[in-house]
Design brief:
29% of the residues lie in helices and 30% in strands. It is α+β, with helices and mostly antiparallel strands and 86 residues long. The protein has one domain.
Length: 86
């Protein structure tokens, strides 16, 4: 699963040919979650509130890029990298 971003101990990944809806995977320590790209809602899993807030802030800034990364991953090409939250 390609890593598309990493910041503040948070790792963002996408699977090739993953199931719909469009989403990304988040890992933070022992926590994992799936976040919908269109809705920016947690689809599955759980993150601590602070980490979730950072992920949501980052995702809102990069929503168009996330959709492009999703399309690339669905087509079995590299989803690329997205700038981290600073």
């Amino acid at each position: 699963m390609p890593e598309i971003c990493r910041f503040y101990g948070i790792v963002i990944k996408m699977f090739f040919e993953d199931h719909i809806p469009a989403h990304f995977h988040v890992e933070y320590g022992s926590f994992e979650a799936l976040i919908g790209i269109d809705t920016l809602a947690v689809i599955a899993g759980k993150l601590p509130p602070r980490a979730l807030g950072l992920v949501m802030e980052w995702a809102a800034l990069h929503q168009k890029e996330l959709l492009l990364s999703w399309q690339n991953a669905k087509n079995q090409t590299s989803p690329g990298k997205i700038e981290p939250l600073k």
